[in-house]
Amino acid sequence: MGGPGCLPSRGSGAWLLLALLACTAGYALAVAPQVWLNWQHFDRVGFLPPRDIGTEQLQWGLQWIKYGTQVAPLNQWVSVNPYAPAGAPGLGWYFNGFEGVRLVALRMVAAVDIDHLFPYVTTLDSPALRVLRTLAHAVAFWGIAGVVALGARSRKQGVVDGRIATWVACVVLFILAWAGIHATTAYENRFSMPVIALLFPFAAWRLSQLRWRARGDQVLLGAFVVYLALWWPLSTFLSSLHR
Fold first, then answer.
1. Residues 169-215: tens digit of each pLDDT
2. What backbone torsions phi and psi does residue 192 show, to the nearest 5 degrees?
3. Got the DSSP string for 47-75?
4. Distance between CA atoms of 211 and 71, rounded to whole angstroms?
5. Shortest CA distance to 142 belongs to which of 221, 195, 218?
6. What residues have CB less than 8 Å from 82, skipping those under 6 apart?
7. Which of 81, 93, 122, 196 is least enclosed, having the fewest CB within 10 Å?
8. Do the Cβ atoms of 111 and 187 come closer than 8 Å?
9. Distances from the Cα of 224 to the Cαs of 45, 206, 208, 210, 242, in angstroms?
10. Quick one: which of 186, 179, 196 has its CA closest to 137?
11. What whole-number distance in Å separates Cα of residue 200 and Cα of residue 229?
12. What is the CA radius of gyration of the chain?
């Protein structure tokens, strides 16, 4: 049975086909200027950038840990990788053992080591940055603890709450995808902000559930103190790499 006028009813095969065609047409209109520019100026047919940005990002990831954009004056700063390998070894370098693991670990800590509250930096020398970094790491630690606790709570007496489990699975997949990209490529520090924002409600919920006399929560608090003790000198080291 048809919808209003000559439109097919929602959910029918014809309606899905119409929706697919509309999305395809909209996407084609969005990328058409890039296709034309690539064809006119770079003799390439397609909407992807003419430069091999994927390879460049991987190579920059070996040379830099992260970078950011500073305003007033406009400038771009980078955290130089002090252990950068010579040449262009490619992605396989990360599987060489300790050196690859060390760089991935540094980069993941640096990703959460937010150097600013807003997307663009006005200064890298303010004492308030240490407070912001501490808060960002606290949100990351307790946020992940909250996700784990919520995932465990979704299974009660052998029965899985599908709604909670689905939300937890989506959050975990998003974080893993973000971590996979940040582990091996150069990235701008502000791109970590959505992850901190995502973890914030989980962190607030987990902290609200703390029971000071509970053995498990005491262990978690101890782990948090150890985490901060290890992070503090590492953050200082990362800050010294800004150029």
1. 889 998 998 888 888 877 777 778 888 889 999 999 999 988 888 88
2. -85, -15
3. SS-SS-HHHHHHHHHHHEEEEEEETTTTE
4. 44
5. 221
6. 241
7. 122
8. yes
9. 52, 13, 16, 13, 27
10. 196
11. 21
12. 23
What percentage of the chain has pLDDT greater than the value 70?
79
Decide: residue 61, CB within 10 A, 0-12 exposed, 13-18 middle, 19+ buried: buried
The tokens for 78 are 């980078």
Q: Please name the residue that has the structure tokens 């998003």.
A: 174
User: How big is the CA angle at 205 (ends 224 and 158), to the nearest 5 degrees?
Assistant: 100
Q: Where do runs of H (alpha helix) occur along the chain?
A: 13-42, 53-63, 98-112, 128-153, 162-184, 193-208, 215-239
Whether this model's pTM surpasses 0.85: no
Query: Exposed (0-12), middle (13-18) or buried (19+): which is 64, by Cβ within 10 Å?
Result: buried
Most confident of 2-11, 51-60, 97-106, 115-124: 97-106
